[in-house]
Design a protein that fits this description.
This protein folds into 3 domains: about 140 residues, Rossmann fold; about 130 residues, Rossmann fold, CATH 3.40.50.10090; about 90 residues, Orthogonal Bundle (Arc Repressor Mutant, subunit A), CATH 1.10.10.10. The radius of gyration is 26 Å and the shape is elongated. The two termini are about 40 Å apart. The strands form 5 sheets. It has a 5-stranded mixed β-sheet with strand order 1-3-2-10-11, sandwiched between helices. By secondary structure, the chain is an alpha/beta fold. It contains 15 helices and 18 strands.
Length: about 375
């Protein structure tokens, strides 16, 4: 996992977004960075190279030997990879002949382009880009006795395939690429730790297997309850589409999705959601906005360490009210630093905000932000 620091501007300035993608990760990271986010990248999966995948070779041989009536193409990269892998095995012409004689259904416009680039033609594509719509069409037409090849895209599509088989179809799964856990699990563990520590504002998911892999790793480490709690209490789970969201929703985790299932709209959802969550207040005459892992003070970004940010959030919950040292101590992450640790953290927070008198000491009680107009009476030491 690496952190990438963007310019201090843009709608995501001050926010940290975790990216779990293995494929097209650099494109997604670039889109987020250009909008100001700090990105923590931890691939949750790795892809088995197609030419080395014996399961794909077996499925290809089976379809050449016994031609399908219908072929369902689900992803452009997968369909292209299948054609290229078959060509590398010397089976390209034989596979193309079988596909040419079949009814080809394309899940969306990108895969339609891949089909046509291979010299083939799709018969139909759902307007919704939804596999549910594909299934509804097939079941309405009747599939009993038909041989149907389903190009898988990193997950088994268990319910889709089962519904076709229950209706009497002979289904052949074509695993054009398979997901396996990453060879180096360290970055994923660090992303999990950062998420549970409150240092990540959103996690972006571009595939259901990546979401499932993150949850599985959390389970292995005994962190699943904490991860689910983090999602429910502030970390945004942003998914490229409804299929990607399924593993998270199965755990009761709310998700956000764009209307169009693309990386650009995915980033736009993040750009709308995170700033909308920002807390704004006027402190010591300065406009302060709490933005994830930093604050904007009069429009200038000030990074704030996690402990000090936790204190600031506790102080900002009810601006102008005194927060006791005990309550601030409870807000600090990690080990118990004692009351003197709270005092030291408040001093560091004052320095990080970069304006005079942002947090006032209330003698014998605790602290509060200087959120009242200048000249108001103050019964503390003004620290």
């Amino acid at each position: 996992m690496h952190d990438t620091a963007p310019p201090q501007q843009g709608p995501l300035a001050g926010f940290t977004v975790g990216v779990t993608a293995a494929r097209r990760a650099e494109e997604l990271i670039g889109l987020l960075q250009r909008r100001g986010a700090v990105v923590q990248h931890a691939p949750a999966l790795r892809i088995v190279p197609l030419a080395d995948d014996s399961e794909l070779r077996t499925a290809t041989d089976e379809l050449i030997g016994n031609a399908p009536d219908t072929v369902i193409a689900t992803t452009a990269v997968g369909f292209r990879g299948w054609i290229e892998a078959a060509g590398g095995w010397g089976l390209g012409d034989a596979l193309a002949e079988r596909l040419r004689g079949a009814e080809i259904l394309a899940r969306g416009p990108k895969v339609k382009g891949a089909i046509r680039a291979a010299g083939l033609r799709e018969k139909w594509s759902p307007a919704s880009e939804s596999m549910a719509e594909v299934l509804d069409r097939l079941l309405a037409q009747g599939v009993a006795g038909r041989r149907i090849a389903v190009q898988l895209h990193g997950e088994p599509l268990t319910e889709f395939v089962a519904a076709l088989r229950d209706a009497g179809a002979d289904v052949v799964g074509v695993p054009v690429y398979r997901w396996l856990p990453p060879e180096d699990i360290g970055p994923l563990d660090r992303l999990l730790d950062a998420t549970l520590a409150g240092s990540v504002d959103a996690l972006a998911f571009t595939s259901a297997p990546a979401a499932a892999s993150l949850l599985a790793r959390a389970e292995e480490r005994g962190l699943r309850p904490g991860l689910i709690a983090a999602f429910r209490h502030g970390v945004a789970a942003v998914c490229v589409g409804p299929v990607t969201a399924l593993p998270l929703q199965a755990q009761g985790i709310g998700t956000l999705q764009p209307e169009r299932f693309r990386l650009g709209p995915l980033v736009q959802v993040i750009c709308q959601e995170l700033p909308a969550r920002a807390v704004e207040l006027t402190v010591a005459g300065h406009r302060v906005q709490l933005r994830g892992q930093a604050v904007l003070v009069d429009g200038v970004l000030h990074p704030v360490p996690p402990a000090e940010m936790a204190l600031l959030r506790a102080l900002a919950r009810d601006p102008g009210e005194v927060v006791s040292r005990a309550d601030l101590l409870a807000a600090l992450p990690g080990t118990d630093p004692g009351e003197h640790g709270v005092d030291a953290a408040v001093d560091r927070l004052r320095t990080a905000l970069g304006v005079p008198g942002p947090v006032r000491t209330v003698a014998g009680e605790g602290y509060r932000p200087a959120a009242e107009p200048a000249g108001d009476a103050e019964h503390g030491d003004g620290g």
